[in-house]
Design brief:
21% helix
């Protein structure tokens, strides 16, 4: 795994690195506030790039999920069975 970079602003701080320990290379994202980790493969990343702006705005709206539960985020990683 490559050394992580950190992407941060006043709303979030996320560690970003490339992970090649799975079946294919993927992006490893870690929310440094909660420790929640998600892996995104090439297809998932391409889907984000091609997503309509309306879909991205809905996805990024914290009132849809983040502010409703103070838990640790997703219950599983994106590539789990």
């Amino acid at each position: 795994m490559d050394d992580p970079g950190v992407v941060a602003n006043e709303f979030a701080t996320v560690s970003v690195s490339v992970d090649d320990r799975g079946n294919s290379t993927r992006l490893r994202l870690e929310d440094l506030r909660t420790g929640t980790v998600r892996y995104l493969d090439a297809l998932e990343l391409e889907s984000i790039v091609w997503a309509p702006d309306e879909w991205m705005r809905a996805l990024l709206d914290p009132s849809q999920h983040r502010w409703r539960d103070a838990g640790r985020g997703p219950t599983r990683e994106s590539l789990d069975p």
